[in-house]
Amino acid sequence: MNNDATITRIRVQYTKGPSLRFTGHLDLQRLWERLLRRSGLPIRYSQGYNRRARLNLASALPLGFVSEAELLDFWMDQPLPLEAIKDRLSAAAPPGLAIQSVEAVDLQENALQVRMTASEYETTFFDPQDEKALEVKVEALLSQEKIIRTRRKKTYDLRSLILAMAVTDQEGEPALWMRLNADPGATGRPDEVLDELGYSVTDMLIQRTCIILSD
Amino acid sequence: MTHPEDNALWRRAQRILPTVVKPGRYVGGELNQTVKPWDSVRSHVALVFPDIYDLGQSNLGVAILYDLLNRREDIAAERAFSPWSDMEAALRENDIPLYSLENKRPLSDFDILGISLPYETLYTNFLNILDLAQIPLRSQGRTIDHPLIVAGGQSGFNPEPIAPFVDAVVIGEGEEVVLEIVDAHQTWADQGGDRAALLTRLAAIPGIYVPSLYCVTYHENGTVDTVAPTHPEASLPVNKRIAPVLPPPLTRFLVPNVEIVQERVSVEIMRGCTRGCRFCHAGMVNRPIRERPVDEILQALEHGLDQTGYEEVSLLSLSSSDYTHIIPLIEGLRQLLEDRQVNITLPSLRIESFTEDLMDVLQSLSPGGGFTLAPEAGTERLRNIINKPISNAELMETARSVLKHGWQSIKLYFMIGHPQETLEDVAAIAELCKAVLREGRQIAGGRARVHAGISTFIPKPHTPFQWVPFSDLDSIEQKLAILHEGLRGAKVKMTWNDPKASLLEAWLSRGDRRMAEVVYYAWQNGARFDAWGDQFDLAFWRTAFEQARLDPDFYSHRARALDETLPWDHINAGVRKDFLLRDYEFSLEGKVRADCRGQCYSCGILSTFSELRLLAPVGGWKCP
User: Fold this and answer.
1) Residues B243/B290, Cβ–Cβ less than 8 Å
2) Which of A122, B207, B557, B614 could make a disulfide contact with B553, Cβ separation 3.0–4.6 Å?
3) What are B388-408's pLDDT values in tens digits?
4) Which CATH number applies to A115-213?
């Protein structure tokens, strides 16, 4: 069949667009398994009765978010040129999922989840916002030493997870940019930050713009 | 042309989506969906399955019509499903009409709504969808500015309980007629005219029933006196539509972005059944037999797998082991599935047409799960009455073969409440289950499992049992108690249907036109998702009968006189009433009629469709 020498690990960066906003983590995993199956690439499967494509998603994106920079690793039994892999993945991708880049990764490298350190998000608002007022709110939030919140019955300090935050301009409308801690022990959620600022999930669209990995 | 994302309704809907459970049901955008620019087509059809996306998107019938309609350049077919209660509340609160998943258009913007009604317990959801779409519930309240409401599906064989709410009903198979409906709508739009002109144009299409063009009168005792057409275009009876040859199977399956109940490539290998089980609605109304060629099935499966990336395939039919080329089909399937990580769902198999050769090839597919057999009754006597003549010896032989071929789990399906059923017949069900388990233990040891699935017999229209009453609930409870007692400590898992849900099905499937008021009141009282055990509440319906001043027992528990005009007599499913009556009389004598592939009993199919049969290949219908 195949030998270990030809096993290849491929990292994909892809978008998760509006039509996939409400596709949760488990559904996304199944979506990727089918995408890989359709691609006809020599996908490496797990062993056992119920064989499944071996794949590894960097980080669960909360339901309702979109992203322009998700990361996923999958494994193949034989190597192929990266351009060919990208073309085949793109041809098999459903609406809303665009393959941005494909690279080969060392088999020994740590799992994506382990290497993640932070995520960046951009939030746009459905209703017009006053830029000055938003800036004041953000400054007030950042000036706090601790922001103690409870999520799923666990108490934590949100402030320590906010690495950076700023009001930006999105086509003339104020938007909110933030970088949140995202290591395996402590992951900040942008909707928690926005809730602290007084916004509900029904008011805005949150987009992940970048996943930052450790070296 | 507006892009769906620019539409104001959709902008508002997107704000409520994060607040509801599983919002991915309400957004569309799946692989293989068809979105046509709204203004680029002449006719807009919304295909509506009145249950949640998770179920509706799994329905093969809707998927077939979606594909057929969208193949036509001048038609856009889009989809809509019932919102779950949280989404319904959010839509109502924000005054957002129910919209289609493709272009996010309110359903009222469409020319035609095609409502899929495969079973009766969707009726209240159907009304709810019209209401959520802000479309008048009753045909007579709609104007030329409203969409045409056309229903279809297996429950359409008795369309009377929904008669006032639909403009037209497709009787029988939809594959051909669905395009004729659009054509008729286009011609009507070209020529101008009122809604009545549209309805009479539809009535002229074979297989289309327009209830408003028929007048129903009743006897003083409440039974139907006459059903009379009020327009020359309204035919009597309305013959069902069938395709002489099954069209090529669907290969373009939509791949959902959120989990639904059935995610697999399904191909119908055969339509119709010649066995003639007297309780079986599907077996009576889907005649004649039409089989698809092996190559066509295998190609469709392969194409479907390539297009979807699905992990599972399924062969659909009423009785797969009766498919003439079942062994070559399974062998071809094995070759196809080799090297693909794909599971197969075993088709339904008949005990009578079961062979060792078939078991050998099935085993080679190494399917998972249990093996299902459906004796339907506990004794040979009762199985003769229901015309499913299997001996206990045959059943045990089949079970042994299944176990020897490596299956460890056998599911046995039975019904209780059959006509002429005694408590001994019921007790025999438990004995049979235990006997199969004993065989299982001998062959497979302690890993052998037997599962008894018990449902309640409902006398369905267009079957030889259409005259008999539905059992009273006390008697069903008593029979269930006998089964529990008989299986106590026996390690046979037993599951059963809620008899109250069967009672509702009996009312709705056996109702006349007045029953529509009961459906209406039940919906007003809050009935939704009646097919869901945890949502269904009989109290809504009991109250509705009172409000409509109708006696529920009149519909469910009354033996109908053999010379009575039945509410569905003007609908011709192809099987004649005098054939059904003779078959019913045979049941009273315990006489069986074997598979009609060998001998014709003149059910009526050949006389109804003599011209159509000329279009089928010789022997294509398996009628002798």
Assistant:
1) yes
2) B557
3) 999 999 999 999 999 999 889
4) 3.30.70
CB contacts of A21 in chain B (<8 Å) are 23, 27
Q: What angle do CA B544, B549, B553 make, to 5 degrees?
A: 80
Q: What is the ipTM of this complex?
A: 0.93
Whether residue A91 lies within 8 A of chain B, CB to CB, comes out as: no
Per the rule left: phi > 0, alpha: psi between -120 and 50, beta: everything else, B420 is: left
Structure tokens at B123: 């009726």
Q: B169 - beta bridge partners?
A: B151, B209
Could you tell me if B156 and B208 are in contact, meaning their C-beta atoms sit under 8 angstroms apart? no
Residue A174 and residue A128: Cα distance in Å, rounded?
8
Residue among B17, B307, B309 whose CB faces A22 most closely: B17
User: DSSP strand E in chain A: where?
Assistant: 8-16, 55-57, 66-76, 99-105, 116-125, 148-151, 154-157, 162-170, 173-183, 186-187, 204-213
Q: Report CB contact under 8 Å: B309, A96.
A: no
Tokens found for residue B179: 């395009």
Residue for token digits 């179920």? B55
Q: What is the dihedral of CA B255, B256, B258, B264, to 10 degrees?
A: -50
Closest-CA residue of chain B to A97:
B31
CATH 3.30.750.200 correct for B369-514+550-570:
yes
**Fold agreement (B264-366+594-624, B369-514+550-570):** yes
CB contact under 8 A, A36 and B309: yes
N- to C-terminal Cα distance for chain A? 35
Q: What is the pLDDT of residues B87-139, one digit of tens each?
A: 999 999 999 999 999 999 999 999 999 999 999 999 999 999 999 999 999 99
CATH topology of domain B4-239: Rossmann fold (3.40.50)
Q: How many helices (DSSP H) and strands (DSSP E) are in chain B?
A: 22, 19
Contact present, B41 and B34 (Cβ < 8 Å): no
Closest Cβ opposite residue A22 in set B23, B31, B341? B23
Nearest to A203 by CA among B389, B19, B456: B19
Per residue in A140-152, pLDDT tens?
Answer: 999 999 999 999 8
Q: CB A35 to CB B309 under 8 A?
A: yes
A120 neighbors A212 (Cβ within 8 angstroms): yes
B547-589: pLDDT as tens digits: 999 999 999 999 999 999 999 999 999 999 999 999 999 999 9
CB B249 within 8 A of CB B267: yes
* The residue to which tokens 């007599």 are assigned: B569
Helix (H, G, I), strand (E, B) or coil at B120: helix
Contact predicate B370/B451, CB 8 Å: yes
Q: What is the dihedral of CA B301, B306, B307, B312, to 10 degrees?
A: 60
Which one is the CATH code of B264-366+594-624: 3.30.428.10, 3.30.750.210, 3.40.50.2300, 1.20.1250.20? Answer: 3.30.750.210
DSSP B66-92: HHHHHHSTTEEEEEEEPPPHHHHHHHH
Say what the pTM is: 0.96
Tell me if A33 and B15 make a contact (CB, 8 A cut-off): no
Residue A202 sits at the chain B interface (C-beta within 8 Å): yes
Distance between A214 CA and the closest CA of chain B, angstroms: 31
Whether pLDDT at A2 is above 50: no
Per-domain boundaries in chain A: 4-109, 115-213
Neighbours of B286 (CB within 10 A): 24
Cα B574 versus chain centre, distance: 18
Question: Which CATH class for the A4-109 domain?
Answer: alpha beta
Show residues of chain A in contact with B29, CB under 8 Å.
18-20, 94-96
Any residues with CB less than 8 A from the CB of B579 and at least 6 apart, and which?
B601, B602, B603, B604
